[in-house]
Amino acid sequence: MAAILEKAKEKVKTAVKNTTDKLEGIFTSSDGVDPNAKVINTDDQQKLYDNIMQDYNVFKAARQSVEPLWREEMRFYDGDHWYGLRSPSASRLRPNSVDNIAWAQVESIVGKLSGWDPWPDFQAQEQRDEPKASDLNAYMPYELAQIKFKQKYIHAIRQCIVHGPLVFKTVFDPNVEGGRGMNRFIGRNDIIPVDLGSFFPDPRITDFIYLQEMGAIIINTRKTMEYFQERWPEQGPKVQPDNMAQDVQIFTYPNYGMAQNVFNFTDTTWYPWDASTQTKTAGLIEYWYRGLPKMMTNEDKQLFREMAEEKLMQSKDPSECLAKARGTMEGVHCVYVSTSGVFLEHKSYVYDHGQYPFTARTLFPNGRNVWGKGFMRDMIKPQIMLNKFAEIAVETSAKSGNSAIVYEEGVITKPQTWKEQRSQESAMLPVAQGRMNDWKELQGVNVPETVFKMLNYYQEMLQKIPGQFDSSNGQPNSNVTSGEQAKALIAAASTRLNPVSDLISDALSDVFGQYIELIAQFYTDQRIARVTGRQVSMGRDSLISHVPTTFQKTTDDGQTTEIPVMEEYVPEFDIIVKITAEKPSDMQYWLNLAFNLLPLADPITGLPLIDAEAVQYVIQNGRMESMDIIEKRIQEKSGIMQQFQQVQQQNQQLQAENAGMQQQLSELVSMKQQQEAEDRHFNRGMQSRKMDLEEAKMTNQIMKDQAPILMGGAPSG
């Protein structure tokens, strides 16, 4: 009976648990769940996990010194300029003036740097690769538009201008599905701007130029429980929510690292953040490292062996795949773990190019760490002083408008009425009878001239620090008295941004270099794009080049034989990214430029620089299309025209040959007619001679027949 009762209790518990699981929402608490109730990781996995977390803690500690600076810079960008400067009770009694010129200057720089589309220009280093470079130039703008790179680029540039670091991540996303009909595909490359809060580089390297020499790079991002369970069905369900979001969401937690008993602590409950929304998330750590793999899974070994066999069947060099299968080749690898203690996955040799999938630069390096600084850091102090002097002017003006009153005792019979109605229109204020002259109004103090001078001073400082003056932003400046002076200021502003644009161009060249490497690795199916009226395809087969080599194959008896194979490689291209600090936006400028270029021709090829379609494009869009597109179209038209001229020449040659043949035919006909006439004349002569001969024969015969008669009829002697 007891056993039956125990089974019944277990069934009830199971039914209740199943019902509870079905009714749980996203943020439902899971009290009573013991994540250590079963083995989470194997011994090797746990050892690797412990080493990764040790590196993560070191990397995180090295970055914490700069995080308060980033938070302060972001607060000034957002307009929260009085944070920590006064208590909430004092803030409610003060104007808290904020003239956010720092934000305006940042956006002015971002607008100038993002004016041009950041598309790459590929130039082949070898003549045989020129068709590939041409196809890349036609295909890449379409590809970058598909991944919404322009908006990601603007986000990264804004982060760089405010804080200093410019960080991109170039990866392949296998979950993307796209295409239509016969051109469907799975997976797409992507360029992602890396948030500073999630980026933990090796602190031993002090300049991002040497990023590829780092021992490891760690990325920590917050993911939902559903994400872990879907991507890693075996280990994902073991992941438990944690409370470590403050490690990476450094801008969302404004009080991170600041105790509430600090003197200048300010209440920040107005921030759009609720910690309860993170109760069903955990941190996903990507531990990227270079060198030999720390471990090789059976799946990775089998994958590389199959790839080697497939390459050998196609007469391609399998040496690299075999070395990867043995784990004896250096490369880039990634370990995925959760901050709650679960080892998720180890992927060996993620990318064939063997580099970290990150590209980073620092706007203004400091030589002490990789972070450096941006424009905002030096604008914080002038912005604070500008706000304070603006507040002094406001408060002084307010006091001047509401002056004080002095009066003798008993003059004002109803003081409360005076307080309430004195500043109102048509107010009627009572005074004791006969004592109208016994009260006096004291005039307030005017705003000192020094305050306005200091306001102008700090406004000028906020222009000089980033080099963005009112004239360069299209606004009049009282200090500029001539057009030439305004042009000089605009040119100076552009000069200040030239190093910034060079830095961005250099970074994007590396980004696009990795991007085409990923195209060669993952785009096994041709990707189709329709560009300028033609269809362009791009994929591994159209990008990879080959060179003959030999492979040492070991037979079953231990002997080695040389097999001729083809080695695959991605050709190198010179990648130029055009980033300028100024881009004319006036339609009339582009129209005048188009008309000036229309009659000009290339002195080498003799082809026109632009065509009529380029002028039509300016009229329709207010700007000129890329010169590469115009040149490509002109070359295509020139090729068609050359083919047409060749056809015309061939037609003329055929006509000339036809005329010659007609003449020869006419001569042959004339000769034939002459021959026929001669034949007829000859036949007539022959026939006449034959008739004469017959006539002579007949005459001779007649004479022979008449001879005896004549002889018999003669008289005898």
Automatic annotation (TrEMBL):
It holds the Pfam family P22_portal. Residues 637-678 form a coiled coil. It comes from the Bacteria. Keywords: Coiled coil. This is Portal protein.
